[in-house]
Amino acid sequence: SRLLLAILCIHRYLLEGAASDPDLSPIVPNPELMVEQFSTSVNHRQSFCEEQTKFNDNGVDLRHALKGKNVNTAVGLDTSFVNLDSDGSINPEDPGLLIVLLDEVARRGEFSWRETFVIEYPPIDGESWLDLLLWSVDTYDISANWWFNTPQRLSLGVSFPRGWYDGSLSIIAKKDKDDISSFNYLSWGMPFTPVVWIALAATMLISGVICFFLEETRLSLSVFISYIHASFIVFTGHLDLLPTSHPGQLISFSLSFFALLMLSAYTANLCSFLVVERSAFKS
To answer: How far is 139 from 170, CA to CA, in rounded Å?
Structure first.
């Protein structure tokens, strides 16, 4: 139930702006909530099960689920986002971005945190940031720090609000010059190398010649050309070469099977060529 704060959507602060009148009252950590780091003897986490039940039963609006509550908060000490004075309190005039965000979320959610917070320092020697995060969310209602949302932390039961900063892994690469958009008359032949095309043409030509001499007893140029034509047509997947002799039928079958393999390879290579080349990112 401590996860109700996630519904308040911190990122809306950046879209709508903070309150016009900043709170310049002292921001002093609550000494009663201070716990020795990684100690499990004291727990300041509150139960918000009643508020969760009211929300589930449509008894309260999502925005006002924490109205009037004092939320125990562990504020992570990050000098980039939190400005501390020499006495350990937070500078009221320039508190830092994290404090401004917490104030704005509290204003919109109508809850308080300034009276019930502590400063959370980096993990002690021998402990990791993950250990600190797990201890923090088990000891306080909120751990306000620059925590990255990772699958490991989610699997361990840590819940994150919709943040103002996307810390997910991303890969950025420079886009190469797109030189493939221009029309190329010979692009249809790129899936095969020139040597393969020559071998294919030779195979079709020789197969047509063999079938002609196996099937015909008379030499005729027009008939010879028709056999060559039918042999090349086989590569398109259409078999128009129908010999009657057994040797001719064997040649026809082997040629058809060969054309099937080559046609499949050509289609696969063409798809791969289009996907890889159109990506516009080269190694």
So the answer is: 32
